[in-house]
């Protein structure tokens, strides 16, 4: 019965995070920080049942980077990346400071300078109806040629191509994606250096594709987020 009640509370909190703005979620967990522990207990229990945890993949990738790499873990939970990568500079942010490694904030308003981060990570943390604001903020704090790494539950995507197009509208360039895992998709984007001209397109590339890539992008509305990533809504029991 205790396990059933805990599961029910996790589902309720999960829905709250997916169907409110980042600011509203921040206010909720700041007023009741104990809910953060209850949520992450349920989250860990859920992810432990997966064949592989994406945070472990990110840690393995980041471990190969130079020790002076500045990493921002956005929606870090208990800051596992910072705990594992003790020789790197890892800045961990979430709605509640679970431990001394974490800074509590709304991810749409990071306490970081412009162009101060080499790598930004969203590991299963693009929650909230305005998650596009989080990605916009990641673009702000990333250095030119900085990397954006994302993993997200595969069932949330309404259209992967539309999601990638939205990030291109924010200014990112897709370098690699991996959908081989049945539970989640992983993406690697970069923030292009505006002072370095893009390499010339191959002559084999289609004219239509070149026009799309060279055309100016439109400002994307943060309210479009729910049309790109579905919230996790559970059936009422």
Structural summary, described in words:
Helix 6 links the parallel strand 4 (117-123) and strand 5 (142-153). The chain has helices spanning 2-19, 22-31, 34-47, 54-63, 80-84, 131-141, 160-170, 207-214, 225-228; strands at residues 70-74, 89-94, 102-104, 117-123, 142-153, 173-178, 184-190. The chain is 38% helix and 19% strand. It has nine helices and seven strands; from the N terminus they run H-H-H-H-E-H-E-E-E-H-E-H-E-E-H-H. The chain has one domain: Vaccinia Virus protein VP39 (Rossmann fold), CATH 3.40.50.150. The chain is of the alpha/beta class and 237 residues long.
Nutshell version of this structure?
This protein is α/β, with parallel strands linked by helices.
Give the beta-strand count: 7
Give the strand content.
15-25%
Output the strand order for the largest sheet: 3-2-1-4-5-7-6
CATH architecture: 3-Layer(aba) Sandwich
Q: Just give the CATH class.
A: Alpha Beta
**The CATH topology:** Rossmann fold
Gap from first CA to last CA: 14 Å
| Coarse morphology | globular
- Count of helices? 9
What is the makeup of the main sheet?
A: 7 strands, mixed
- Fraction of residues in helix: 25-40%
Uncertain spans: 1-6, 200-218
How are helices and strands ordered from N to C?
Answer: HHHHEHEEEHEHEEHH
In CATH terms, the superfamily is Vaccinia Virus protein VP39
Round the Cα radius of gyration to an integer and report it. 18 Å
Helix/sheet category? alpha/beta
- The tally of structural domains comes to 1
């Amino acid at each position: 019965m205790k396990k059933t009640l805990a599961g029910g509370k996790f589902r309720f909190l999960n829905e709250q995070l997916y169907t409110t703005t980042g600011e509203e979620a921040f206010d909720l967990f700041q007023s009741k920080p104990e809910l953060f522990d209850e949520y992450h207990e349920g989250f860990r229990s859920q992810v432990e049942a997966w064949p592989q945890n994406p945070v472990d993949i990110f840690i393995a990738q980041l471990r190969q980077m130079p020790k002076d790499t500045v990493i921002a873990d956005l929606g870090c939970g208990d800051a596992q990346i910072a705990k594992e990568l003790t020789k790197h500079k890892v800045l961990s942010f979430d709605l509640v400071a679970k431990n001394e490694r974490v800074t509590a904030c709304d991810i749409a308003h990071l306490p970081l300078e412009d162009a101060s981060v080499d790598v930004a990570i969203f590991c299963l943390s693009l929650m909230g109806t305005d998650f596009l604001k989080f990605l916009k903020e990641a673009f702000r704090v990333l250095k030119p040629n900085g990397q954006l790494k994302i993993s997200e539950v595969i069932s949330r995507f309404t259209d992967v191509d539309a999601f990638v197009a939205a990030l291109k509208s924010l200014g990112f360039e897709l370098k690699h994606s991996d959908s081989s895992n049945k539970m989640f998709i992983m993406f690697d984007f970069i923030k292009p250096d505006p002072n370095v001209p893009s390499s010339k397109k191959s002559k084999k590339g289609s004219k239509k594709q070149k026009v799309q890539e060279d055309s100016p992008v439109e400002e994307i509305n943060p309210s479009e987020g729910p049309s790109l990533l579905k919230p996790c809504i559970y059936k009422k029991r």
